[in-house]
Amino acid sequence: MQNLYQLDKHFVKENSIQYILSIRFATDGLSFCVHDSSNRLLLFSHQVYQPESRIEGLTKIYQILTTEEILNLPYQKVYLLFCKQEKTLIPLPAFHKDHLAELYRVCFPLEKKEEFLTRLIPRSECYFVESHPTQLLAFLKTHYPAAVMINHAYPFIIHSLTAAIFPQEYLFIDIQNRYFDLLLIHDKKITLFNTFTYRSVTDIVFHILNSLKQTNTNKKTVQTTISGELVNDPKLFNTLNTYIPNVSLLKDTRLNRLLNDEKLNSSCFVHFLNIHTCE
Q1: CA gap 273, 266 in Å, rounded
Q2: How far apart are CA 196 and CA 210, in angstroms?
Q3: Per-residue pLDDT tens for 49-103?
Q4: Which is more confidently placed, 174 or 245?
Q5: pLDDT tens for each residue of 232-265
Q6: Is residue 63 a contact partner of residue 47, using CB atoms and an 8 Å limit?
Q7: According to the model, what pLDDT value does residue 261 have?
């Protein structure tokens, strides 16, 4: 994907204090968008970079955030979205801030100079927990003092819970660069949330089918929705349809309208564009 920068004619820099800014940090680059008070998408930008190390990635983030004029205007609200595989859900009865490190290490390694971000998921009895470099969080808190920081999976989960309107089984898959998140909902409650590394479509399908088997979920009746990378890959859709008959793809028409004829998989940014509606 090439760098993209699209601006709606209704965007006025002098009115930025009335707008909402959202920024997405991912392994494929940094994206940001601006909405007005009526939820109109006014601006979208995706700047491509794939750092070879954490230090290189942090350096690139600092550079963009400090030099891009749009990112230094005053806004009504700022959201910072991290696309990161390392995150987990902790049930409310088990959640205690003094024991977060122990619980987190069950799933992921924890660096010394890192700190946690936690957030209670509405309509569920669990906390969303992730960790980030202390240096990065300190910089972001200084640059955007009142910003809301959360993982990309948070709006994914909120959207999924909202979409699961009937008391039946739902499967939601959100595919990012190098990993994907899997969410199972039964009777409007989360029964499984997990994240998996993948290298091919075959890996994705294997983990999905294994998760359904382990949770005794009926493949023929579960309602499945896929978003993110690879939704345009016919191999993924066709292979899944071999085993799961009810599969739909999630996309965002607002982004396609703003970009006109630009070739972009809008499904990668669906939850990013909706993060400001999750509170």
Answers
A1: 10
A2: 12
A3: 877 777 787 888 999 999 999 999 999 999 999 999 999 999 999 999 888 888 8
A4: 174
A5: 888 998 899 899 989 999 987 778 777 766 667 8
A6: no
A7: 60
How far is it, in rounded angstroms, from Cα 109 to Cα 132?
A: 12
- What is the reported pTM? 0.91
SS3 68: coil
Instruction: Find where tokens 């660096």 sit.
Output: 111
Phi and psi at residue 3, in whole multiples of 5°?
-65, 135
Tokens 């010394």 locate to 112
What's the pLDDT tens digit per position in 1-16? 457 777 888 899 999 9
Residues recorded for the chain: 279
The angle, 0 to 180 degrees and rounded to 10, between the axes of the packed helices 201-214 and 234-243 is: 30
- The residue-averaged pLDDT of 23-47 equals 91
The β-bridge partners of 174 are 181, 227
Instruction: Look at the alpha carbons of 171, 174, 175, 178 in this order and tell me if their dihedral is positive or negative.
Output: negative
Q: Which amino acid is at 27?
A: T
| Interacting residues of 125 by C-beta distance below 8 A, sequence separation 6+ | 91, 92, 93
Q: In one letter, which amino acid is 165?
A: I
> φ and ψ at 194, to 5 degrees?
-150, 160
Decide: 159 and 213 in contact? Cβ < 8 Å: no
DSSP-H helix ranges across 144-189: 153-163
Instruction: Provide the sign of the torsion angle of the four alpha carbons 8, 9, 12, 15, taken in this order.
Output: negative
Which residues, 6 or more positions from 26, have their beta carbon under 8 angstroms from its beta carbon? 83, 152, 176, 177
Structure tokens at 62: 């600092």
Please name every residue paired with 80 in a beta bridge, in sequence order, or none if there are none: 23, 149
Greatest alpha-carbon pair distance for the chain in Å reads 55
